[in-house]
Amino acid sequence: MADAVLIYAASSHDSNLLYKTRFQAGDPIVYIEAGGKNLLVLNDLELGRGKAEARVDEIVSMSAVEKELKDAGQAKPTLADIVARVLELRGADRVTVPASFPLEMADMLRGKGVSLTYRREPFYPERTVKTEEELKHIREAVKFTEEAYARAHKAFVETEIRGNELWYQGSPLTAERVKRIIDGYLYENDLLATHTIVAGGEQGTDPHCRGFGPLHPNETIVIDVFPKSLKTGYVADMTRTWVKGKATAEAKRIDAAVKAACETAFRTIRAGVESTDVHKAVQKTLEDAGFKTETRDGKPVGFFHGTGHGIGLDVHESPPMGKRGALLKEGMVVTVEPGLYYPGVGAVRIEDDVVVTKDGCVNLCSYHKNLEIP
Amino acid sequence: MADAVLIYAASSHDSNLLYKTRFQAGDPIVYIEAGGKNLLVLNDLELGRGKAEARVDEIVSMSAVEKELKDAGQAKPTLADIVARVLELRGADRVTVPASFPLEMADMLRGKGVSLTYRREPFYPERTVKTEEELKHIREAVKFTEEAYARAHKAFVETEIRGNELWYQGSPLTAERVKRIIDGYLYENDLLATHTIVAGGEQGTDPHCRGFGPLHPNETIVIDVFPKSLKTGYVADMTRTWVKGKATAEAKRIDAAVKAACETAFRTIRAGVESTDVHKAVQKTLEDAGFKTETRDGKPVGFFHGTGHGIGLDVHESPPMGKRGALLKEGMVVTVEPGLYYPGVGAVRIEDDVVVTKDGCVNLCSYHKNLEIP
């Protein structure tokens, strides 16, 4: 008997399944790899679409297997019976599943004598290296994200400073309105942005604050957008930091240091380099510019997150590029997102997406990084 | 020792967890019920938001438990160690989890001696009966859905019939454009509609076809919309069928029969009634009107799906109202969605959402059901 891979999930929520099948399914479906081939087990309603769209070697009809089991005397075959039978027909009795595999199916299969073990992420390490087709999808997501930034930027340009308030089209400009401009434009173009960050002033100094309420002039506003294409499943992940009006001298120094840190990463990233070394170089650039990372009043300040992470079908995927790292390979796509956070002063984070090449990297993002918006 | 309930999931994708905590989390969190109380185990980043927003008896600091385990000599406590410790402190060693519980966590807990069994849906049967607050959320989702229909209807009214084509604002009216009008309006109002159906002509006769391409005059167009509020998590689920131009005599007969079937359901639904009896009454109304349900050319025709299903945090939840049924209770919210599908003739499905009351039901939907759009 031989080994197999089994996934039982909805590809709308399971990137590994979508990666291997390119088949969009909102309800759980059965995917099996065995004997060097892969297959989907689909019900009658999905059979036709599966045959037309899924990039697998074979589509197995669930009802055909069910009928076979009934003919053999099983009154009411369960889905686990059907899965076990397909595995048996492929000569597989040792099965590897994702760590998130649903317990009910696991217990039922084990009850039938199937040996089931889970494998942690990255379940498919090859997902880290992108094909030309995948790069095309990521580039497309980046393009729309940059256009969304341009829409938001235009709104800031048209915004009026009234004392400590920002007014746009007759009412105060809020984080929520900026998110609506960005997310709305993306949705019109079939990308779904969830949890977009528009964090002004003190809010921005907590990288986990999504931002809310009125925005103010002359303070840093961190805008982090990471939409997923509803068509392809691929994401972009970008951050820009803006000041409407005049940035303080300190904010300008922070901004310059973060931009220098970006350049350090762009210079350091290359196939064959350990990503954690990129992170160390970025940390050094920020320290050398005089920006300390430490704890003040019980809160972390400075640069206290990773330099980046892989993107693809997920916003966060391998390789990591921080304290934990991995060997960078040609064709990986990673974010470069250094940031500095100082309560009382402000926060700047700038994030681009780059493809790792043999000699360095190619930046997929070309949208400007100007801090101030007059 | 005693029993406990354990959920480990992201509430953004797990309605049971959202139901019990009302805490929106995009990453997996740990939820435990033991000794008549419930709690969330949260990391430091989520602690503050959890204390402010989650409707649970207690928030447990993950890092505090981790520290305790480290102080007791465990070098690198895993999340499973932390969960096992919290269960131990609550005196619970028999744990019930959802059928979808992730295998890795299950195997690790079992390895530590925790007895773990899964329970199938409905995991919380009490979810079927809605509170006033839940009804308010569903009513709100219905309101925006009806407004979205009104937007689409206006577009059809402004559409011009040119031979066998429909022209709207200078170009052919397609299923995709109608979906964009509906989904876009809903998104602007913080509701996410996925897989909206706009299925014209023959497409509509397959209830699983989402619809695509140019729409045509004088044929039935089935429009099924089931958005989820991004704020509250609650859904609406409505269907209308329209004909731009003149409906055929046969389409009008089908439409009249489906409307009569809706009325049958509204008259039959009441607390204490078996929902499968509602379905049988609806089937009888359609049969009595002369519409047979049978197989023609290998395809099902007539009325071959259920009369409805519960809605709430999920688009499909208990109780079912078809071949499978359940006892209807006061406060349940179910769809009423009879339909007739005849290839070569057309399809009509009409769907409202109703609340079950002691004496009958209250229709949450008031949007008109006119078939023809001149």
Which percent range describes the beta-strand content of chain A? Answer: 25-35%
CATH topology of the largest domain in chain A: Creatine Amidinohydrolase
Which class best fits the helix and strand makeup of chain A? alpha+beta
Helix fraction bin of chain A:
25-40%
Name the largest protein-protein interface in this structure.
A-B, 25 and 25 residues
Poorly predicted residue ranges of chain A: none
Tell me the number of strands of chain A.
24
Assembly type of the chains comes to: homodimer
CATH architecture of the largest domain in chain A: Alpha-Beta Complex
- Helices of chain A, by number, come to 9
Task: Give an overview in words.
- Two copies of one chain form a homodimer.
- Chain A has 374 residues and is of the alpha+beta class.
- Chain A folds into two domains: 2-123, Creatinase/prolidase N-terminal domain (Creatine Amidinohydrolase, Chain A, domain 1, 3-Layer(aba) Sandwich); 128-373, Creatinase/methionine aminopeptidase superfamily (Creatine Amidinohydrolase, Alpha-Beta Complex), CATH 3.90.230.10.
- Chain A has helices at 15-21, 44-53, 62-71, 79-89, 103-111, 132-157, 175-188, 249-268, 275-288; strands at 2-9, 29-34, 37-42, 58-61, 92-98, 115-119, 160-162, 165-168, 171-172, 191-192, 197-200, 220-225, 228-229, 238-244, 294-296, 299-301, 308-310, 317-321, 333-336, 339-342, 346-349, 352-356, 361-363, 372-373.
- In chain A, β15 and β16 (299-301) form a beta hairpin.
- In chain A, α3 packs across α4 (79-89), α6 crosses α7 (175-188) and α8 (249-268) runs antiparallel to α9 (275-288).
- The longest helix of chain A is centred in the middle third of the chain and has 26 residues, at 132-157.
- The first copy, chain A, is elongated, with a radius of gyration of 24 Å.
- The mean pLDDT of chain A is 96.
- At the A-B interface, α5 and α7 of A face α5 and α7 of B.
